[in-house]
Amino acid sequence: MGWNSWNRFGPFVSERLVLEIADALVESGMRDAGYRYVVIDDAWEGSLREDDELVPSLWKFPRGMRALADDVHARGLKFGIYTCAGTRTCQGYPASAGYEERDARRFVEWGADFVKIDWCNTHGLDARAKYANWSEAFRAVGRPMVFSICEWGRNRPWEWAGTLGHLWRTASDIQDRWDSVLSTLERQAAIAEHAGPDHWNDPDMLEVGNGGMTDDEYRAHFSLWAILAAPLIAGNDVRAMSAATREILTAPEVIAVDQDSAGMQGRRLRENEGRQVWARRLADGSHAVVLLNASDAAAAMRVSWAELGRPPAVAAVVRDLWERQDVGTFNESYEASVAPHAAHMVKVSSR
Ligand code: GLA
Question: Are 277 and 287 contacting, i.e. CB atoms less than 8 angstroms apart?
Fold first, then answer.
């Protein structure tokens, strides 16, 4: 869990922004809700390497990265940085092809705890081999490092990236729109079995709070990322978020599903005209369920104990994870009315 600059700020990153966000993560309670990694995405770089080393833009990061990372660490947060496997980053800045060991060492000197490696301008490179180079480079530097693989699912990374990195993007970039959440979700349905502790499918960073969706839609987006065991990387302006955005991003029982120790990614049980039932088995034997209504009309939606793999004749307690209260005890199934473009999220457990 963490924050990344890209979704909200694009190339407009700076030391000042990062420090203000770090402060806001602490003050808003997001750090304590679990958001620890502060990741600077593309466009932090200066326009050229100096003595073969990557250097930050002096205008944006006047004190350099080490001082900034120290300040981030002093706030009880972790520091993340970005580069690209190709010859230039996606924004056209110097990137890392041929400099893997050197740049991995550089990031360690700066105190990085997380590195995202993008895939623009990689003509002729083999993704699996290149990300294996990076994996070796990170292992060699001797500092624990989260390695985020970002080739957009082009080369089926779920089949090979689990031994190389900790998370890998499964789809192209998310947009701050409901149809983008749905199409990103679609890519996750068939690859659940490849995710687990320390090796996660990454459907991309959160758009919660960026303004393009309703709060119901953002709640659904967050519910779905939790059922998918997805990395929760906030992408909003934490300094100026609404109370509703803050409540969504810090919902403790939804986050607990995301972070469940069994690390099993949820699966889609059913789909019918935009109405989807997703479920995930949790470490304590209970089930988290998302009833997603992507249609334009309210709908009564049901999940049965049998389809969850629970004994149908045994009554179960249903708890609303957004309201944080038990709804009641039910036999065989549970039904709820779900608003259009919204999700209802519950936990089903033995009495
Ligand atoms: C790619 C990545 C994004 C972001 C941008 C930065 O599109 O998929 O997440 O890092 O590059 O340029």
Answer: no
